[in-house]
Amino acid sequence: MFDLKNFPLNYDKDALEPYISKNTLDFHYDKHLATYITNLNNLIKDSKFSEFSLKKIIIESSQKNENASIFNNASQVFNHDFFFKSLSLNSSVDFPNQLLVSFNSKQHFIDEFKKVANSLFGSGWVWLVKEAGDYKIVKTSNADNPIAHNQTPLLTLDLWEHSYYLDYQNRRADYIDAFLNHLINWEFVQSNL
Fold first, then answer.
1. In contact, 73 and 36? CB cutoff 8 Å
2. How many angstroms separate the CA atoms of 8 and 158, rounded?
3. One domain for residues 68 and 123
4. How many distinct structural domains can be found in the chain?
5. Does residue 129 share a domain with residue 179?
6. Do residue 113 and residue 161 come from a single domain?
7. C-alpha–C-alpha distance, residues 49 and 70, integer Å
8. pTM for the whole thing?
9. Which end of the chain is more exposed for a tag (fewer CB within 10 A), N or C?
């Protein structure tokens, strides 16, 4: 069984201001993530999934439609935790050299990530992933994530409205820009390479 304490923030809730407010993190982390954890625990109680790691729950539940609720909640727990770890106002590392093979420059990466993020209709996620030795930017809708598609996640941006609406209202493009120019935790990305 999982608990919010299993997914701690690596910073104070005001540490990302002015780009993401403490108010947003109070709701996003304490309410949204906590709800997904509670839902997941209720769904897996007394089942084989209760003994699995979060990643194994995602992989196993993605294979059968009758486990869609388990998949959605497990995936959202993973996605949110990964997103919170993807954030830092003062990353100690800059754009990793390994990514130059696929993107040529940090600016090219930013431009490509922004293009994919702005093309996502509705709620979902934009990911930097590694697949078959190549680095790609992909988008997933709703609760879907790269683990279910044999990809290794390296970075993600949450594009559900609850992740930005208190700070940016309908200006999702400004939120995407703030993430790309000020909030990426390149140290976390490097650790995932």
1. yes
2. 17
3. no
4. 2
5. yes
6. yes
7. 9
8. 0.96
9. N
